[in-house]
Amino acid sequence: MGAAERRKRARPSALRERRAVARFQGTRTDFPAFEHLVDGLDCPDDKARARLRLVGLELFDNLVRHAGPLRGGVRMRYGEDASGRMSLAFSFRSRRFRAWLKAPGPSLPSWSPAEKRWRGLGLIMVRNLSSRVEHRSGPSGDRIVVTF
Amino acid sequence: MDQLNISEKVTDRGAILVVEGPVNSYTFTEFQTKVYAWSKKTDLVIDMSAVTSLSSAGLGVLMAAIDDAADAGRKLWILKPSEIVRMAIESTGFADSFAMIGALREAF
């Protein structure tokens, strides 16, 4: 074993830290690119990647539908700390999204006659597949952070 | 796989839809059209072994199709759900509503 290999083995946790940053326009046409990006991330395992894919797409979809048009686009940041805990953050600027969050709406899944399907499942999915979901807004914009 | 592909097969016992690719807000309209068209008129098996993601929009369609099928006295099965499909279904807390099977012989 060479010196470099010994150094790697001595610091295994540090080697597991991962970061990725990407910027999207914030439209429906970003979906395939977003999926490709998640597929290429160095996730701890396939189950973790599946959770990231489902939660990330659900949140991204909500941004596209309820925050747009997003003039500055959406910045996505993926992180994995030394313990393997993943986080996903979306940064953007949207008054419309803040208004949508504050608006009263059904808190449970409900039937939508207009769309002919059940609605309200997304937030349940996101909450059950992650540990914590936060929305922060301030002068610099909006940020949704999900910790797994 | 960026696109959703749905192939249809009709047997003397019912219909089989083979779904491949992502079911998300970008693609779910085609999924909705084909699932609803079959779920009301015959027993239906949806092969979801090659589905790469399933959004809440797609789940909402599946739940509505299950209701439609039950109202019409029909049955709907999810055949060999991929890991991500199973995870999405279980995350809603409504997994008991979905008849998930591992082989076609368990359906018709």
Q: What does the model show?
A:
The complex is a heterodimer of chains A (148) and B (108). Chain A has 148 residues and is an alpha+beta fold. Chain A has helices at residues 3-10, 12-15, 31-40, 46-66, 95-102, 122-129, and strands at 18-24, 74-80, 86-92, 110-112, 117-119, 132-138, 141-147. In chain A, the strands form two sheets. A five-stranded antiparallel sheet of chain A has the order 1-2-3-7-6, covered by helices on one side. In chain A, strands 4-5 form a two-stranded antiparallel sheet. In chain A, helix 3 (31-40) runs antiparallel to helix 4 and helix 4 (46-66) packs antiparallel against helix 6 (122-129). The radius of gyration of chain A is 18 Å and the shape is globular. By secondary structure, chain B is of the alpha/beta class. Chain B has one domain (5-106): Transcription Regulator spoIIAA. Chain B is built from three helices and five strands, in the order ββαβαβαβ. Chain B has helices spanning 28-39, 56-71, 83-92, and strands spanning 5-10, 15-23, 44-54, 76-79, 100-101. In chain B, strands 1-2-3-4-5 form a five-stranded mixed sheet. In chain B, helix 1 (28-39) runs parallel beside helix 2 (56-71). The longest helix of chain B is centred in the middle third of the chain and has 16 residues, at 56-71. The model of chain B has no long low-confidence stretch (mean pLDDT 94). The A-B interface holds A 28-29, 31-32, 35, 46-47, 50-51, 53-54, 57-58, 61, 64-65, 109, 111-112, 115-122, 124-125, 128-129 and B 2, 22, 24-26, 32, 36, 52-57, 59-61, 63-64, 83-84, 87-88, 91-94.
